[in-house]
Amino acid sequence: MPIVNTNTTISIDTVYQRVLALANKEQRGYITPQEFNLHANQAKHDIFEQYYYDLAKYVNLTKKADSAETTSQNTTVEPDFSSMVNLIREKLTIYEGTPVALVNSAGNLSLPALSNSIYRTGRYVYNAGAEHIPLIKTDWQMRPLIKEKWDAISGSNWHNNHIHPARYYYHENSDGSISVYKEDAATTPITAGVSVEVIAAPPTPVNWGYVVVNEKALYNATTSAHFNMHISEETNLVVKILELAGITINKPGLVQIASNEEAQNTNEKQ
User: How far apart are CA 265 and CA 252, in angstroms?
Assistant: First the structure.
């Protein structure tokens, strides 16, 4: 489990002032509070939804499953702070809810009827006291290869501090249920203590509140709502809002500036 940064609030006023400063620097016009609030909520939504696509992409980039490759090549987790998989998971933990327990039926586990308040489901985990151990998806016949890969990971001093020594596997059944096993339990299925991680809700709506004084909008902290996002997203928010604002006020130059910034940020992630 990555270390979670508890500073998860980005000031709505800081983002707005940065957007205005960049727009004015390029003489691209004024972005009203109403326009900013509209674009800020859309940018927040776009960034949040992109997490899932990026997570899948980076997991696939770091994962190798060719049984002919060596143990070191089959390692699937990067043991450093530059791991994009770890970073994206850290960003998503802000929105995690309480894991939902799976229901046992004849040795197979299934999801119960989920609350409408749950936004997305994630990984299956085994509850070992206060720890939630991610299950490894595999066919039973593939366990020797998965064990080799897991041993390679657990041989790292860094990972010994971040993963549980026990190994739990699952495979999907034709009816949509799953069967779960522990490494040392032969073919006896686990029928309790398995949950699914959930994203409880997406980021909450934001608002740059203001009062009008002498025909000028002044920031009102009382009626404002900040971004509940990882603090590293501040620049991404500024860029996204500039891009959306450039389209709204028909300023192609502003869109180009934002697009260039976004392309640079994307290249830095490669």
Answer: 20
Read off φ and ψ for residue 191, nearest 5 degrees: -115, 5
Percent of the chain scoring above 90 in pLDDT? 35
pLDDT tens, position by position, 231-257: 999 999 999 999 888 755 545 555 565
What is the share, in percent, of the chain residues with pLDDT greater than 70? 67
> Sorting pLDDT into bands at 50, 70 and 90, what band is 149?
low
Q: Determine which helix (DSSP H) or strand (DSSP E) holds 128, and give its type and residue range.
A: strand 120-128
- What distance in Å separates the CA atoms of residue 171 and residue 141, rounded to the nearest whole number? 11
Strand-pair partners of 77: none
Q: Which of 118, 114, 134, 126 lies closest to 198 in space, CA to CA?
A: 118
> Taking a C-beta distance cutoff of 8 angstroms, is the pair 148, 70 a contact?
no
- pTM for this one? 0.73
Instruction: Specify the long-range contacts of residues 214-218, CB closer than 8 Å, at least 24 apart.
Output: 217/32, 217/33
Could you tell me the CA-to-CA distances from 81 to 77, 90, 96 in Å, in that order?
11, 11, 21
pLDDT above 80 (res 195):
yes
Gap between the Cα atoms of 7 and 10, Å rounded: 8
Residue 77 buriedness (CB in 10 A; 0-12 / 13-18 / 19+): buried
The encoded tokens of residue 222 equal: 């009382």
Residue type, 197: E
Sign of CA dihedral 7, 62, 164, 103: positive
Q: How many CA atoms are closer than 13 Å to the CA of 64, on its beta-carbon side?
A: 13
> Distance between CA atoms of 100 and 115, rounded to whole angstroms?
10
